[in-house]
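Self-study notes.
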Amino acid sequence: MLRVVLTFTTLLLLGLAAFGQKQSAESLLGDWTGESKCVGGNPYCHDEIVVYHLTRSRKDSAKINLSADKIVNEKPEFMGEFRAPQIGLGD
């Protein structure tokens, strides 16, 4: 899970740096759904549908919260939450 969150966060931060505009960064907030595919021969790894939730922090609007759920039996199962550092979403 940590690897998935770190990978997603890294891509998010790179994307924000590339956009460089508040309007574009704001458009990244919301719910994102995708597939997490296993590679290699790890028997403990399972392909999953993952839903990422990106929201503004309630304490500091220039920061975002990232939480993730995996879909199990068609229902979300909480995987974790991460608070990203300031990334240019200031008012």
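Second protein, same conventions, sequence then structure:
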Amino acid sequence: MVNLSAAALESRTLYRVSEEELARFAAAERRELERRESAYHADQAPLDVRGRTVILVDDGLATGSSMLAAVAALRLLSPARVAVAVPVAPSSTVLSVDAWRTRSSVSRRRNPSWP
């Protein structure tokens, strides 16, 4: 069984995704994450970020969900501070990142209605 938040459970019900389909999808995604981990990091040990300031950089944020996942994973490694630097992001996303008590630097905040 896959553990779901209330919002995820509501979405699963709304889109009529069975428990079996969800489990299959989660297993496939887990395999892909493991493949990427192996391909990108091979035999390298993770960097020791305890007590250090870490800056996460991306070429731009849309919803910010991937960045917030990266921040959450990084925080498990006990850095002193986490900063996020991106050239452009919607104001709502910047507020979301800031709400995580993560310092953000965005050169241009864009209006979500822009193309």
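Instructor comment on the second fold: Residues 53-110 form a domain with the Rossmann fold fold (CATH 3.40.50.2020).
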